[in-house]
Each structure stands twice: as C-alpha cells, then as structure tokens.
C-alpha cells in the first residue's frame, strides 16, 4: 500500500495518501506508469501535477488520468512535496538551470524532494544547481510499465528518513524498491535489474525456441516460457527460499530436469549470466565518467 509522507506523530498508513503531493517533470512512458501506479494505490488525482513539453503528450495525460498539467517545471515543484524528475538526460542541465533561476525568486521551488529517474545522472549533477535540495537518485527498470518494476535508490546528504519513506511510497507503486548506501552501487544495480530484463527476454526467447524445436506452436511455447519465468520469480520472492533450494526441489535423481540443468551447466550458463551483469555494470561505470 502507498506509504505517504508521515505526519510527525502518526505512523504511515494507506489512509494518509492524501497528504502526499506528487509532481512529475516530464511525462514520458515511465512517468505514465508511475502515475497509473500511484492512482491505483489510492493517491487522489488532485494531488498529482505534471509538466511536459509535448502538447500531444500533455493532452494525452490530461485525458487519460485527469491530472493537473502545469505550464512550467517550477510550477510543479512549487505545488508538490515530491517531484519525480523524468526528463531525458540531455536536457537535465537546462531544466536544473531554470529551476535554480526560479528558486532565486521563490525558494519554495527548491524545497521539494526530487526523485531522479534520469539515466546516468548522478547526485552531483543536482548539487551543482540545487545544493540545498533533497534528492534521491533511483535506478528503475522497464517492467515498472506493467507494475512489476525493480528499483533501487540512494539519498543525498541532506535527505532524511522521512524522505526514504516518500521514495519507497512513490517507487513502490509500480514494483519493489530497495535502498543502497553508496551511489557507486547503482552501477551494479544497472547491470543486474536495470539491464536484466533484456537477459530474461533472451532466456524466454531461447526457451520458446526450444519448445518450437520439440514441436510446440510458437504462441504456446512463448506463453509457457514467459509464465514459467514469472512463476519461478514469484516462488523466490514469496517463499523466501534460496533459488538453489527451489531448483533442487524440482530436480529428481535421473529425471528430466537434471538433464536440462546439466545441458545448461555444460554451456556455462551461470558464468555467462554473471559475466553479463558484470559487463553491463562496468559499462555503466564507463558512461558515468564521460
């Protein structure tokens, strides 16, 4: 359930969702997914504001969600307790420079908590323009678009525990969210859950190919493969058991599953997946230095 910014003397509860005013600077696909998730979690639509440069996109968001569309980014910041920064990386500096200018005239612009989902942009990028603003950097992933995202976040030095609660409230509306203490670990998160959906799509495609190879129709093979991956993931999350323990539970002596596992191990399956996570994480590190 949605956990809004708590009242000083009251623990967070779903009934307090009306206390959380959330804005979005940028109204792209990820913002749309998060808006939908927040509304499903019970946040009143009158607590949401969005700024978006595309007129067609503004109309779409207003028609679809009935959200308040603001003309400018600083209006969103003024109206919100929490602002999700969801712009393209190449325009972030321009957006922040404008917010800094607006904050000089109206300090309230810089008083919101910013949740940045801008790819590759570090906390230092925000400190340059808005040094006193509380900022959380989040690495989400694309399954957030269907409410099954996996996000990880880090807070800057001026954030509080209340801010952590707010980040988890907002990001938790479209999946699971974890916190790390060191921003450098977001490179590892990028390699694992950020890039991970692509690895899983390859696995699903390969499993489907195997089913077709053995005679199954393609639609049936793909549906079975995708559902198997989703179900196995749910088993890990809901049972709390180690994946190896769950694997052993379906691997009978001399049976079909151990034959398949042996084929995977012969192809260095685990080592290849580990290498993929490492390669993506190192590439994230390289991009961060550019």
From TrEMBL:
<comment type="similarity">
    <text>Belongs to the pyrroline-5-carboxylate reductase family.</text>
</comment>
<comment type="pathway">
    <text>Amino-acid biosynthesis; L-proline biosynthesis; L-proline from L-glutamate 5-semialdehyde: step 1/1.</text>
</comment>
<dbReference type="InterPro" id="IPR008927">
    <property type="entry name" value="6-PGluconate_DH-like_C_sf"/>
</dbReference>
<feature type="domain" description="Pyrroline-5-carboxylate reductase dimerisation">
    <location>
        <begin position="183"/>
        <end position="287"/>
    </location>
</feature>
<dbReference type="InterPro" id="IPR053790">
    <property type="entry name" value="P5CR-like_CS"/>
</dbReference>
<keyword id="KW-0963">Cytoplasm</keyword>
<keyword id="KW-0028">Amino-acid biosynthesis</keyword>
<dbReference type="Pfam" id="PF03807">
    <property type="entry name" value="F420_oxidored"/>
</dbReference>
<feature type="domain" description="Pyrroline-5-carboxylate reductase catalytic N-terminal">
    <location>
        <begin position="21"/>
        <end position="119"/>
    </location>
</feature>
<dbReference type="InterPro" id="IPR036291">
    <property type="entry name" value="NAD(P)-bd_dom_sf"/>
</dbReference>
<keyword id="KW-0641">Proline biosynthesis</keyword>
<dbReference type="Pfam" id="PF14748">
    <property type="entry name" value="P5CR_dimer"/>
</dbReference>
<dbReference type="InterPro" id="IPR000304">
    <property type="entry name" value="Pyrroline-COOH_reductase"/>
</dbReference>
<dbReference type="InterPro" id="IPR028939">
    <property type="entry name" value="P5C_Rdtase_cat_N"/>
</dbReference>
<feature type="binding site">
    <location>
        <begin position="86"/>
        <end position="89"/>
    </location>
    <ligand>
        <name>NADP(+)</name>
    </ligand>
</feature>
<dbReference type="InterPro" id="IPR029036">
    <property type="entry name" value="P5CR_dimer"/>
</dbReference>
<keyword id="KW-0560">Oxidoreductase</keyword>
<dbReference type="GO" id="GO:0055129">
    <property type="term" value="P:L-proline biosynthetic process"/>
</dbReference>
<dbReference type="GO" id="GO:0005737">
    <property type="term" value="C:cytoplasm"/>
</dbReference>
<feature type="binding site">
    <location>
        <position position="73"/>
    </location>
    <ligand>
        <name>NADPH</name>
    </ligand>
</feature>
<dbReference type="GO" id="GO:0004735">
    <property type="term" value="F:pyrroline-5-carboxylate reductase activity"/>
</dbReference>
<protein>
    <recommendedName>
        <fullName>Pyrroline-5-carboxylate reductase</fullName>
        <ecNumber>1.5.1.2</ecNumber>
    </recommendedName>
</protein>
<keyword id="KW-0521">NADP</keyword>
């Amino acid at each position: 359930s949605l956990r809004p910014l708590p009242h000083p003397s009251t623990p967070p509860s779903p009934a307090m969702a009306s206390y959380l005013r959330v804005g979005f600077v940028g109204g792209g696909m990820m913002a749309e997914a998060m808006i939908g998730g927040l509304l499903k979690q019970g946040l009143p639509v009158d607590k949401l504001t969005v700024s978006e440069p595309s007129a067609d996109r503004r109309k779409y968001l207003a028609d679809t969600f009935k959200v308040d569309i603001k003309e400018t980014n600083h209006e969103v910041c003024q109206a919100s307790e929490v602002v999700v920064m969801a712009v393209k990386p190449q325009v972030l500096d321009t957006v922040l420079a404008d917010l800094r200018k607006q904050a000089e005239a109206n300090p309230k612009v810089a008083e919101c908590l910013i949740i940045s989902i801008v790819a590759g942009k570090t906390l230092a990028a925000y400190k340059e323009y808005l040094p006193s603003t509380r900022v959380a950097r989040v690495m989400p992933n694309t399954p957030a678009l269907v409410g099954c995202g996996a996000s990880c976040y880090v807070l800057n030095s001026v954030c509080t525990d209340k801010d952590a609660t707010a980040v988890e409230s907002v990001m938790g509306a479209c999946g699971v969210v974890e916190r790390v203490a060191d921003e450098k670990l977001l490179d590892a998160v990028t390699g694992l859950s950020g890039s991970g959906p692509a690895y899983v799509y390859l696995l699903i495609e390969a499993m489907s190919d195997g089913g077709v190879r053995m005679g199954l129709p393609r639609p049936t093979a793909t549906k079975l493969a995708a559902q198997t991956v989703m179900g196995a993931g749910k088993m890990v999350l809901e049972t709390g058991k180690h994946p190896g323990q769950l694997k052993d539970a379906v691997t009978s002596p001399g049976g079909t599953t151990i034959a398949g596992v042996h084929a995977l191990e012969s192809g260095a399956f685990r080592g290849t997946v580990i290498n993929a996570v490492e390669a993506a994480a190192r590439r994230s590190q390289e991009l961060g230095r550019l």
